[in-house]
Amino acid sequence: MEYICSDTNVWLDFSAVGRTHLPFRLPYTYIMNSDAIEDEVLSPEGLGRELVELGLQPVDITIEEFLYAEDLGRMYKQLSRYDRIALAIAKKRSIILLTGDKALRKAALTEGVSLMGTIGLLDQLWTEGRIEQEEYQGCLKAWLDQQTYGRRLPKNELLERLRGLEYRNS
């Protein structure tokens, strides 16, 4: 089973549309710093506990990861403490970083860390047949509807996928 180090925002995206369970259908073990789960995954209430029950593995950082996270703080001032920890874990363990945070994605690319985001996870669920078209389309539409409320997923990518489904079904 492949490990993926997770940032908070992807879980918030899936939670916002009532589909927190979907990523756990993929053959990954998601890990996240245990302090980040306690301190960042606060809303909606109980989300951190739900994620752990679904399979999110809380992990502690090693000394090497901690020191690297400190170095990252000097290089990338815009990253939060937990963003730096997630990046350090992914880099030092040579695993994918799961995030949609723009600044964190940019830093990860600079540091040579592989990335995946919310839409990438959904696409993989769809292409591997782990969700039906109705659920795939439902997530895309729900995220698109939430653009009005300030969600940060790229509207053009959501629309592109919906148009592709319309073309495919015609």
Structure description:
- With 170 residues, the protein is of the alpha/beta class.
- It has two domains: 2-118, Rossmann fold (3-Layer(aba) Sandwich); 130-169.
- 56% of the residues lie in helices and 11% in strands.
- It has a five-stranded parallel sheet.
- Helix 6 (102-110) links the parallel strand 4 (96-98) and strand 5.
- Helix 4 packs across helix 5 (81-93), helix 7 packs antiparallel against helix 8 (133-145) and helix 8 runs antiparallel to helix 9 (155-169).
- The longest helix has 15 residues, at 155-169.
- The model has no long low-confidence stretch (mean pLDDT 92).
Summarize the structure.
The chain is an alpha/beta fold and 170 residues long.
Please specify the SSE layout and strand pairing.
Elements: E1 2-6, H1 9-16, E2 28-33, H2 34-40, H3 47-54, E3 57-59, H4 63-75, H5 81-93, E4 96-98, H6 102-110, E5 115-116, H7 118-127, H8 133-145, H9 155-169
Helix pairs in contact: 4-5, 7-8, 8-9
